[in-house]
């Protein structure tokens, strides 16, 4: 049996007045996704338990079949795994966004999609500052990632990290257009995080990177925003849990990290950007090719989530349609040509274009293929999922149903 999982990140949403009461998934023209539901089932799953952040870090862990209530330790340690950074028992990883804050309001949690080269220079400035501070020089390390998504690592052997599970920090994408004044990190060790965030304002103010950016009309990176901290998680290998070898196609470190932690192969695709300008067709082609090597291919596409964070409903619809045409449609054909197959389509969490951020709640899950008997539904969407009698309140249990159903 060959399996494929498509994750249109953040694609679930609420009905929109501007779409005549449809959700973006329902307004989008998605013949391949609809055909999959017609041939199989639609279900709903909750991948974000109320007590955890309604984020991709929790949602995707659950989607891959791991109970986040037992396994989730924070977002940054997962992203550290993507970079091959090993965290010891005393170490903490912290997500270090580059952001644009204006008049104490979060103008852009991506610092206008800052380039990786520019981000690397700004992080080097933070590192220079920390290195000059004898107390923190041995423990804090700024690690560039891709664009605004970077890390800070606290090596805790010589000086224990002051953080705990009680340390709270708000994701900057939850603050778009909002005041940041009440949302600085809180709890154990937050003074260290806040002082670095404040110091970055001073260090970045006239930084050459920002001078150049403003010269060509781009927003400056005014601050680092520290959040998503945690210690290393330990996840059971996916093949030991399900007897299936998997591979991941994604453009973001969060999913690369999850793949690493569960023992999946990672496939890098040229032109995959983690944004709405990604090369959807290249991802589709890479997924088909991967079926030669692995039993399960997972394709994660960040674009619907990014369009939602920008409040761009038409951009979200376009991203969903591109996924349907360039990933789902060719992949279904390729799977069918190989014999027994199954496909699942599931977002990790809803991202509302209205609020420009993630929310807890159900996502629609389409599952079809060998051994899955069709239900009465014939199109993919949030409303049909809400009506379905197949529901996974503990979303992480969906994976077992998908892999093992009737086998
Ligand atoms: O990586 C991030 O910082 C966020 C926003 O881009 O991603 P997601 O919304 O998928 O959690």
Quick structural gist:
This protein has 407 residues and is an alpha/beta fold.
Descriptive notes:
The protein has helices spanning 24-27, 31-39, 56-63, 68-71, 76-82, 116-132, 134-137, 190-205, 208-215, 238-242, 253-262, 280-290, 303-309, 313-336, 382-387, 398-404, and strands spanning 2-8, 41-46, 92-102, 105-108, 140-146, 149-154, 223-230, 246-249, 265-267, 296-301, 341-345, 351-352, 357-358, 362-369, 391-392. With 407 residues, the protein is an alpha/beta fold. It folds into two domains: 2-72 and 234-404, Alkaline Phosphatase, subunit A (3-Layer(aba) Sandwich); 92-230, no CATH class. It has an eight-stranded mixed beta sheet with strand order 9-8-10-1-11-14-2-15, sandwiched between helices. Strands 3, 4, 5, 6 and 7 form a five-stranded antiparallel beta sheet that branches. The chain starts with a strand and ends with a helix. 2-phosphoglyceric acid is lined by residues 9, 55-56, 149, 173, 305.
Average per-residue pLDDT, rounded, comes to 97
Q: What ligands does this structure carry?
A: 2-phosphoglyceric acid
Number of strands: 15
The helix count comes to 16
Under CATH, the homologous superfamily of the largest domain reads: Alkaline Phosphatase, subunit A
């Amino acid at each position: 049996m060959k399996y494929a999982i498509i994750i249109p990140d953040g694609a679930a949403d609420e009905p929109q007045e501007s779409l005549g009461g449809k959700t973006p998934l329902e307004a989008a023209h998605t013949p391949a996704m609809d055909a999959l539901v017609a041939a199989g089932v639609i279900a709903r799953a909750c991948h974000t338990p109320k007590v955890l952040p309604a984020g991709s870090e929790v949602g995707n862990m659950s989607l891959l079949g791991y109970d986040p209530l037992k396994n989730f330790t924070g977002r940054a340690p997962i992203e550290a795994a993507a970079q091959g950074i090993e965290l010891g028992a005393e170490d903490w990883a912290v997500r270090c966004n580059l952001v644009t804050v204006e008049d104490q309001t979060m103008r852009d949690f991506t610092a206008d999609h800052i380039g990786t080269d520019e981000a690397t220079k700004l992080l080097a400035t933070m590192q220079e500052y920390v290195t000059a501070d004898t107390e923190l020089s041995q423990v804090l390390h700024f690690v560039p990632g891709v664009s605004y998504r970077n890390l800070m690592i606290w090596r805790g052997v010589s000086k224990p990290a002051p953080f705990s599970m009680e340390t709270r920090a708000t994701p900057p994408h939850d603050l778009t257009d909002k005041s940041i004044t009440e949302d600085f990190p809180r709890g154990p060790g937050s003074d260290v995080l806040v002082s670095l965030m404040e110091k970055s304002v001073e260090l970045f103010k006239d930084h050459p990177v920002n001078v150049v950016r403003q010269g060509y009309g781009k927003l400056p990176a005014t601050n680092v925003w520290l959040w998503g901290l945690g210690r290393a998680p330990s996840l059971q290998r996916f093949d030991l849990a399900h007897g299936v070898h998997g591979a991941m196609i994604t453009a973001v470190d969060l999913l690369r990290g999850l793949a690493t932690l569960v023992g999946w192969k990672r496939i890098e695709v040229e032109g995959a950007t983690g944004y709405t300008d990604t090369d959807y067709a290249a991802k589709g082609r890479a997924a088909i090719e991967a079926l030669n090597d692995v039993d399960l291919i997972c394709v994660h596409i960040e674009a619907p989530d990014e369009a939602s964070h920008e409040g761009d409903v038409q951009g979200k619809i376009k991203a969903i349609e591109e996924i349907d045409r360039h990933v789902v449609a060719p992949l279904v054909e390729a799977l069918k040509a190989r014999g027994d197959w199954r496909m699942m389509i599931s977002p990790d969490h809803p991202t509302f274009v209205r609020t420009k951020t993630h929310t807890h709640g159900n996502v629609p899950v389409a599952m079809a293929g060998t051994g899955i008997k069709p239900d009465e539904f014939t199109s993919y969407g949030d409303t049909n999922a809400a009506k379905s009698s197949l529901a996974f309140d503990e979303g992480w249990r969906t994976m077992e149903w998908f892999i093992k159903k009737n086998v």
